[in-house]
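Researcher: We're teaching a course module on how sequence relates to structure. For the next exercise, students receive a sequence and then see the predicted structure as C-alpha cells, so they can try to spot secondary structure elements on their own. Here is the exercise chain.
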Amino acid sequence: MSADKQVLESLAFLYLTFGHSTDGQLAADEMRLLAAKLREWAPDTELGDIGELLRSTVASYKAADDKLGEARKITTGLKGTLDDEQLRKVLTDLESIAEADGKVVDEEKAFIEETRAGWF
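Model: And here is the predicted structure for the students to work with:
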C-alpha cells in the first residue's frame, strides 16, 4: 500500500492531531508509532523523509487555530480519496496510536467513533 504525498500529509496531520489533542500530550511511544504507521502507507519513503514530514506537520499543527476542525476536514477529504479498506486501516492506525501510551482515554474513543460514523 503506497499513499501519495497529499494523502500522507493528511494522515500525518490527522494522526498528530489525534495523538495530541485527544489527551493533551503526545508520548514518545505514540510519536514513534505514528511514524511507523505513516511508513506503512508509503513503504518506499526514506525514514528521513518521514521525519521531515512530521517536522513540517508539527509546524502546521502548531499554526492551526482549530486543530480538531482541521482534522475533521481531513477526515472528510479522505473519505473521497481512500477506499473502504484504506479507511478501515486509518481507524486501526488511530486505535493503535491511542493504545501506544498504555491507556485509551474517552476523548480518543470518541474521536475514533466520530470518525468511523462519518465514513461508514
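Model: If you want an answer key for the exercise: The chain is about 80% helix and 0% strand. Helices lie at 5-21, 28-41, 47-63, 67-81, 84-99, 106-119.
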